[in-house]
């Protein structure tokens, strides 16, 4: 199994509801190893870059507002950004997180247990977890400098979306 690293963000709903420790407990229990952590002010630019592949979706404008804490009164636009490492870490973190739509997520997953769909149709699903290796490589490098990660494994080339 390949050693992978994956980006996790505690989204504003998770932060505001006091679910940060719970999410980290679940990821610990899944056997994932924490190798980086910091609070980040999410600028409009960072939010748009993070979700750039979704920029033509109808939910994109509200997604940017959501990740910047505008629906949860987060004055500092803050999220907790984490990097987890392990064998097959990307898929294992997604498994612990559950499906994107909390109503369809396994009820025992983090999103199934604690996510909700707002009456406006926004998925408030507690955490972000990188979807695949290309996303993980790009996202870990977007949110963290190599020196902020205990054991960085991804190279700069992948951050620009280039094939290695
Ligand atoms: N999202 C939404 N409505 C949708 C699809 C996505 O509000 O119909 C939001 C949701 O917060 C999701 C994020 O956009 O987590 C990113 O979407 P993606 O398809 O990448 O899902 P994820 O990788 O987070 O499971
Ligand atoms: Mg995704």
In brief:
With 164 residues, the chain is of the alpha+beta class.
CATH fold category name: Alpha-Beta Plaits
Estimated structural class? alpha+beta
Major sheet strand order: 2-3-1-6
Low-confidence stretches: none
Q: What is the number of helices? A: 8
Radius of gyration, taken over Cα atoms and rounded to an integer in Å: 15 Å
Taking the alpha carbons of the first and last residues, their distance comes to 20 Å
Dominant shape? globular
CATH superfamily: Nucleoside diphosphate kinase-like domain
Please give the oligomerization state of what you see.
single chain
Largest sheet: 4 strands, antiparallel
Q: Please tell me the CATH architecture by its name.
A: 2-Layer Sandwich
- Determine the fraction of residues in helical runs and give it as a percent range: 25-40%
